[in-house]
Design goal:
Blueprint lengths: L9 H4 L23 H4 L2 E5 L3 H17 L2 E4 L9 E5 L8 H16 L11 E6 L2 E6 L2 H14 L11 E3 L6 E4 L2 E6 L3 E3 L10 E2 L2 E2 L3 H14 L3 E3 L7 H4 L6 H11 L5 E5 L4 H4 L11 H17 L5 E4 L16 H12 L5 E5 L19 H6 L10 E6 L22 E7 L15 H9 L10 H6 L7 E5 L15 H12 L5 H12 L8 H12 L2 H8 L37 E2 L17 H8 L9 H4 L2 E2 L10 H24 L7 H33 L11
Bound molecules: 4-O-methyl-beta-D-glucopyranuronic acid.
């Protein structure tokens, strides 16, 4: 029984705020109370039962308490309402208007060609007479539908609004947290985290702020995310224990996120049978090892019955894996998958496997080739509950990379595409870098050639059997969640793309703006919207302009990966080289004369990438070593392009800062100040990038800037 069941909330509503967090110290991100105004002023009926229906009721009650509306839960008498949220299999109600609305919804579903079901998470929204009606088959659908109504604001109540059917394209829409339980001596509490500490852990213990975790779940659900792993893929001893001794800590998080439809997953170490189980080996072919995984997994499900599964980084950057025992990655993944299968759990097995002890003198080893070389031969060997999690590019979340050829090479494997919301290589949440356009390009890329299936199709799979989308989270215990307030848009966009990878990034950004900076809460909504678009829409390309040129990547400061250091990795063991000399720059990855990486693509792109004549400009130095005087498709030479883009990038950032200043006094002063301070740093850092890159290439090439600008 829940507190609202079959009661008229009219009386209690104005007495006290229902449970929920509104911690004034924490920024509300895309769910400020104001975003609920249109909903909260309505008369709303919720009909159905279940944990997530209670969440819906809680949300609606909070909104109506604030804005003067009314809420009923499955009333046994007739009521006049504006909005009906109902589960399709809920009992008939004694209200002819509500039942007529239900029938109108059913008819709309037939008209829209819905195959009679809305699924576990889908919903239908339509108008029926004076009512707006939302139908779902399952409570999660009602919750996603509710957040859709919030997004629409008053438009959800527009009498002329046509019916809409929404079902997520991807079943699993997952965030990976690289949060450490114990503070790592080098990586700290959150590996590659730029938003303070962890939401979950602090100094070896649970952070204990369950209200904050609940609020986080609420934000994630409103963007469409339904799965989360709560610890780093690099698993130390304290983190390994989450699987056994510290399972209660995980169960507590799962309990808080469950009402928002989010399942918890754990990163585990492949060596767990040794480090936790005391076995002499973690060999996947060893019977005791298999039994250990089976028993351990059973105990996990006894405690958390909707547990999502395991995430594994194996044989990668020092993490243990099946290679130790002469086994391959299918052997390794399958033993964990077998243990999870009886409970419906999945293994997310990462394809980020490469030699990180490379010799820069050895031109035959190419880090970009590694994932394909290791995994493509294993296609068809993974159990069906293994999801191979593949970074979107072949190297490592660079600002610009080609799409990983692994994504097109394993038709008999469930593939998840991994994106990085945390801005490790894209300005570390000190720079504005809106990644929507980058991800959209990746998801729309057609690896078999134009017009063919896309990366979004691979992640979706045939009949929804794909592995979905995964992203590394950018959140922490910072009051703005993401350090840079505008970086919230990246998290929101990821969730929305995971729900529908075909969405237009500008439209998603617009949604985010309307929610985060509600027009009714600012004196000049048009100025705010226009300015945010001007600053954010093209910010990824601006970032690209002032950093490493033409897809060559890296050139970042080793270790922390922030700021320029052109030769920082040039002689290192990590395999991320640019090979600049006095004549030219870039990596020859052609089949004819290079590492052969271009040949890992299906024929159309293998041919396009093979030749500098056909390779797209933005990837030229990823695939080819060319002279500085090489003429790009744009008509510019490589060296002049480097100069021009670096000058332009800094100018664009300077304009961003100027534009932001016009919002002073228009928006929340705390947001204004935080962004203003970060834009100062972005201008400083972009200038440093420009000057180091331009100077470096001027010194190497000896070719002056055709426009005579100052190069140091
Ligand atoms: O991008 C690199 C990061 C590592 C990270 C690794 C990975 C968690 O620099 O910090 O480790 O990728 O994806 O596993």
């Amino acid at each position: 029984m829940n507190a609202y069941e079959s009661t008229d909330l009219e009386e209690s509503m104005f007495v006290a705020e229902p449970p929920g967090v509104e911690d004034p110290r924490v920024h509300p991100a895309w769910l400020p109370p104001e975003a609920f105004r249109a909903l909260g002023a309505r008369r709303v009926l919720v009909h159905g039962d279940g944990l997530l229906v209670d969440t819906v009721l809680d949300e609606v009650t909070r909104a109506c308490t604030r804005y003067g509306g009314r809420v009923w839960h499955s009333p046994s008498w007739d009521v006049d309402v504006d909005l009906v949220l109902l589960l399709r299999d809920a009992d008939e109600l004694p209200s002819s208007a509500v039942e007529a609305a239900r029938s109108a919804g059913e008819a709309a579903l037939v008209d829209l060609g819905g195959d009679a079901t809305l699924g576990d998470e889908g919903f239908l929204l339509t108008r029926a007479g004076d009512l707006t009606v939302l139908l779902a088959d399952a409570p999660a659908g009602l919750l996603y539908g509710l957040f859709h109504v919030v997004r629409l604001c008053a438009a959800a109540f527009d009498p002329a609004r046509p019916p809409e059917l929404h079902r997520p394209a991807l079943r699993r829409r997952m965030l990976n947290h690289w949060d450490n339980v114990a503070v790592h001596p080098v990586m700290g509490q959150v590996e590659r985290g730029y938003a303070g500490g962890s939401i979950f852990w602090a100094g070896g213990r649970p952070r204990g702020d369950l209200a904050r975790i609940r609020e986080y779940g609420r934000l994630l659900a409103a963007s469409g995310i339904n799965a989360i792993s709560v610890n780093n893929v690099n698993v130390g001893h304290a983190e390994a224990l989450l699987l056994t001794d510290r399972l209660n800590d995980v169960a507590q998080i799962a309990g808080v996120l469950r009402p928002y439809g989010i399942r918890v997953h754990l990163s585990v170490t492949f060596a767990a049978p040794v480090v936790l189980g005391g076995l002499p080996t973690a060999d996947p072919f060893d019977e005791d090892v298999r039994a250990w995984w089976a028993a351990t997994t059973r105990r996990v499900y006894e405690r958390i019955d909707d547990f999502g599964g395991y995430v594994v980084k194996a044989d990668s950057e020092g993490q243990p894996g099946p290679f130790t025992y002469g086994r391959d990655h299918a052997d390794g993944a399958n033993v964990l998958a077998e243990a999870l299968a009886p409970y419906g759990g999945v293994v997310h097995w990462r394809a980020f496997v490469y030699n990180h002890h490379q010799d820069w003198r050895d031109r035959s080893t190419d880090r970009a080739r590694a994932a394909y070389d290791h995994f493509a031969p294993l296609d068809g060997r993974f159990r069906t509950n293994v999801v191979l999690q593949v970074k979107f590019g072949p190297v490592d979340f660079q600002t610009r990379e080609p799409v990983s050829p692994v994504l097109a090479a394993m038709p008999a494997t469930r593939i998840a595409v991994e994106l990085q919301v945390t801005q490790e290589y894209t300005g570390q949440q000190r720079h504005v870098c809106h990644l929507g356009p980058c991800w959209s390009e990746v998801l729309r890329f057609a690896p078999w050639g134009p017009g063919g299936r896309t990366i979004a199709d691979v992640a979706t799979g045939e009949a929804g059997t794909g592995g979905g989308l995964v992203a590394v989270a950018n959140t922490g215990d910072d009051p703005f969640w993401t350090g840079h307030p505008l970086a919230q848009a990246n998290l929101y966009t990821f969730g929305r793309f995971a729900w529908d990878p075909r969405l237009d990034p500008t439209a998603v950004l617009d949604e985010w703006m309307t929610l985060t900076f509600p027009p009714s809460a600012t004196a000049d909504p048009e100025l705010v919207r226009r300015t945010l678009h001007e600053i954010m829409d093209d910010s990824w390309r601006t970032y690209e302009r002032y950093t490493a040129p033409l897809g060559v990547g890296f050139m970042v400061h080793p270790g922390d990966h922030y700021g320029p250091d052109v030769d920082g990795y040039e002689y290192s063991r990590w395999g991320t080289y640019h090979f600049a000399d006095r004549d030219g720059v870039g990596v020859d990855r052609s089949r004819a004369t290079g590492t052969g990486f271009a040949g890992q693509y299906p024929p159309y792109w293998a041919d396009v990438y093979e030749s500098p004549q056909t390779c797209p400009d933005e990837l030229l130095l990823f695939f080819h070593h060319v002279p500085y005087t090489h003429v790009l498709h744009s008509g510019s030479t490589v060296i002049q392009h480097i100069y021009d883009t670096h000058f332009a990038g800094v100018e664009e950032v300077t304009v961003m800062r100027r534009r932001w200043r016009t919002l002073n006094g228009m928006i929340d002063p705390a947001v204004y100040e935080r962004v203003a301070e970060r834009l100062d740093e972005q201008v400083r850092s972009a200038t440093e990038w420009r000057d180091q890159i331009n100077t470096y290439f001027f010194r190497k090439s000896g070719i002056p800037d055709a426009r005579g600008r100052r190069i140091h």
